[in-house]
Amino acid sequence: MPMMYPILLTSTWALAATHLHDAPLWMTVGIPLLFTLVAVTRVVYWWKLRDVDPSPQEAHRALLRTNRLAIVIAVAFTGWSLLLFPYGDAYSRSHVAFYMAITVIACIFCLMHLRSAALMVTVIVNGAFIAFFASTGEPTFIAIAINIALVSIAMLAILSINYRDFARMVNARTEARRKEEAQARLLHMIDDMPVAVMTVEPETFRINYANETSKTLMRSIEHLLPIKADELVGTCIDVFHKHPEHQRRLLSDPANLPHNARITLGSEVIELKVSAVMGADGSYLGPMLSWAIVTKEVEIQARIRQLAHYDALTGLANRITFRERLEERIAIPGNPVEVLFIDLDGFKLVNDSKGHRVGDELLRKVAQRLCEVCDDDEMMIGRLGGDEFAVLAPCDGAAAAEQLAARIIKAISAPYALEHVHQVQIGASVGIALTPMHGVSGEALLARADMALYAAKAAGKGTYRLFSEEMEARVQERVRLEARLHAALQANEGLFVFYQPIVDVQTNRITAREALVRWHHPEHGWISPREFIPVAEQSGLIDLLGEFVLNRACRDALEWQDDVRVAVNISAVQLGKGTIPSVVLAALVSSGLSPSRLEVEVTETALLEDERDAIADLRQLRGLGVRVALDDFGTGYSSLAHLRAFPFDKIKIDGSFVRDALRRPDCAAVVRAVAQIGKRLGVTTVAEGVETEAQLRRMRKEGCTEVQGFLHGAPKPSARDAAIVEELNRSAVRRATA
User: Among residues of the chain, what percentage have pLDDT more than 90?
Assistant: First the structure.
């Protein structure tokens, strides 16, 4: 645009010179001087701002100013030209026409990059020119006007074409600059990313870019590669591979991407993620690799896989892995296998009394002994959970399986010398199941080995049992018994509470009655508590059964005329969960029985399960005012320790000692010792199972405070149930004699 002003000024002064003697001086000198001053001012202003890069807003304002200035200049110069036209001869007038024509053409070319200004100048100047000269009536001027009109049309077309090309060029440059800036920002972002990134030339496989993270990671593994980190750019990607042919084929074809791979370099593992970089036209520019050193992650993943399939404590296969391997072995035709299900006898006692640290060490020792006994490559040992183990072995017949079980029991039962304990001894029970006679699936084989294990434990522990159909029949009967008991509890039918008196040995006065649950089934008659109570404990029904007995005993005791206490047994399964105190409180509140008239009896076995939580429950019961008795004393493992742990109100001596006290001095000594301990502690001692006068005299002699047994009365139903029980018994007699 600054070139426009010299063209205008030179043309203006030339026209002024030709009219100097014909037109007034203010027109030939004054106005050109004014035009010159304005033009010089604009040129100086442009010169000062020539190196300034304006903002889009500033550029827009400048364009608007130029449009307005173009209008002013066009009007001013056109008006001055037409003012000079009347002066001078025909040559001078022709000069005016020439001036207007050539000047507007020059302005159009100078303003072609600002189409709006060029259009306005063309319309103003040429419009005035054509109208003025066409109106003169002079044929020459009319021809010139027509010629100028045609030239104007052509020039406007050329202007539009040039402006379109100029706009495309500007937009292309803007887009290219935007892409360069975006690429620069992207590279800057990639440089600062915590992820290592590299790009590779697809033809030469040379690294053409690597960010700072890549170089930093390279410095940590330089000792494993033939190059240094600063030499990474320009180096062939082959340095990461001993045999790079596969990698080259992969990177050369974008159809193979994206691709993930892990490469081992010495002791380090590198993870590569390769993606294709494509051009705007869809051409393949090359691969981009993001990579990381994942050695620790790989080690952690391997550890997780180890933990998922193997027991963390012993290193043996866990339950999932053992089952999978069992199914695989069973699936092989003509390959019979045997499963030995092993449960440790006495482990829980060691674990609870000696601590989990000793328990864990003992489990590791057991695992070692199992590995020594089962050292055949065809055998597999698993820890299925807690103190349960299993052995999978080729089946050589029942006799061979039993011999293996005997060796396992012998090995496990030998004393253990542990780090923190001088010596520990436990035992083992084993259940055996064989394919195909005991099952053709892993689930069936394990279930029947478990049944055999249950039978081994019932036989007295420390032995083995081979699965038999009778065992499954017993299990099915147990399931049916559980269903019947559940139905009886839901319907509250067939369940009764009988009471057996506890008598003071000196006065023969009843001091308490023990509540004993009894169950009569419509089809099977009276079912022994020895049968259904273990089922209730194992099935989770013991809580419902215990609540029934507790609530019934509290209500019945409230109706007794002698106001003696009622004793209710608490199962080991109920104790230690933190629920029994609230159950007892609810029974007392609903019945209205005084807490001092309720006695709860717990066995030593219940305390062995979880002594800390069990003692906490007992303390809460004591806080309610309920008395607590220790039942079956003398049959547990740490009786004296339990007496120290909790101040029991009563100790009940197991009936096995009472029955044998007359003929076995050792049993009499136990009774005497317990009675003396009770006397010293101020605790009542009860001898259970007293059935004869001789036994009563002996218990009185040994110092027992109270006795319980058939001598003073068998368990009897409450007054409200007596008639019902009598009718049930008569019906049973009638059916038996029918």
Answer: 30
pLDDT at residue number 638: 45
Q: Give the up-direction half-sphere exposure of residue 480: CA atoms within 13 A in the CB hemisphere.
A: 10
Residue that the structure tokens 């296998």 belong to: 337
| Residue 70 predicted with pLDDT over 90 | no
Please give the DSSP secondary-structure letter assigned to residue 435. T
Are the C-beta atoms of residues 630 and 638 closer than 8 Å to each other? no
Domain 194-299: give its CATH superfamily: PAS domain (3.30.450.20)
CA–CA distance, 512 with 383 (Å, rounded to integer): 48
**HSE (CB half, 13 Å, CA atoms) of 78?**
23
Helix axes 4-18, 90-110, angle to 10 degrees: 180
Q: What is the pLDDT of residue 338?
A: 93
Residue 70 has phi, psi (to 5 degrees) of -60, -40
Question: What integer pLDDT is reported at residue 639 of this predicted model?
Answer: 54
How many residues are there in the chain? Answer: 738
Task: Kindly provide the b/e burial profile for residues 491-513, where b requires at least 16 CB atoms within 10 angstroms of the residue's own CB.
Answer: eeebbbbbbbbbbebeeeebbbb
Instruction: List strand residue ranges (DSSP E) for 455-581, in order.
Output: 464-466, 495-504, 510-521, 525-527, 565-569
> In Å, how far are 226, 719, 732 from 723, measured between CA atoms?
100, 8, 14
Helix axes of 295-309 and 319-331: crossing angle, nearest 10 degrees: 70
CATH superfamily ID and name for 310-467: Reverse transcriptase/Diguanylate cyclase domain (3.30.70.270)
Q: What are the structural domain ranges in the chain?
A: 4-173, 194-299, 310-467, 500-512+555-718
Nearest Cα to Cα of residue 114 among 74, 166, 75: 166
Q: Which residues contact 549 (CB under 8 A, 6 or more apart)?
A: 497, 515, 517, 568, 569
* Nearest-angstrom CA–CA distance, 541 and 495: 14
pLDDT for res 642: 66
- Residue 555 binned pLDDT confidence (cut-offs 50, 70, 90): very high
Q: Report the alpha-carbon distance of residue 262 to residue 692 in Å, rounded.
A: 84
CA angle 586, 587, 591 (to 5 degrees): 115
Bond preceding residue 258 cis, omega within 30 of 0: yes
d(CA 174, CA 168): 10
Task: List the structure tokens of 157.
Answer: 């077309």
Ranked by mean pLDDT, the top range of 1-5, 268-272, 690-694, 734-738 is 690-694
Tokens 């030709």: give the residue.
18
* Tens-place pLDDT, residues 695-714: 999 999 999 999 999 999 99
CA-to-CA distance for 514 and 475, rounded, in angstroms? 31
User: Per residue in 581-613, is it b (16+ CB within 10 Å) or e — as a string?
Assistant: bebbeebbeebebebebbbbbbbbebbbebbee
Name the 3-class secondary structure at 267.
coil
Read off the pLDDT of residues 594-649 as tens digits, 9 standing for 90 and up.
Answer: 999 999 999 877 666 567 788 889 999 999 999 999 987 766 544 566 677 788 89
Neighbours of 563 (CB within 10 A): 9
Convert the pLDDT of each residue in 106-164 to its tens digit.
887 787 778 888 888 888 888 888 888 888 888 888 888 888 888 888 888 888 888 88
What pLDDT does residue 460 have?
Answer: 80
CA distance 391 to 339: 6
Q: Across the beta sheet with 268-278, what order do the strands follow?
A: 207-210, 196-200, 284-293, 268-278, 259-265
Nearest Cα residue to 67 out of 126, 120, 7: 120
The CATH class for the domain spanning 500-512+555-718 reads alpha beta
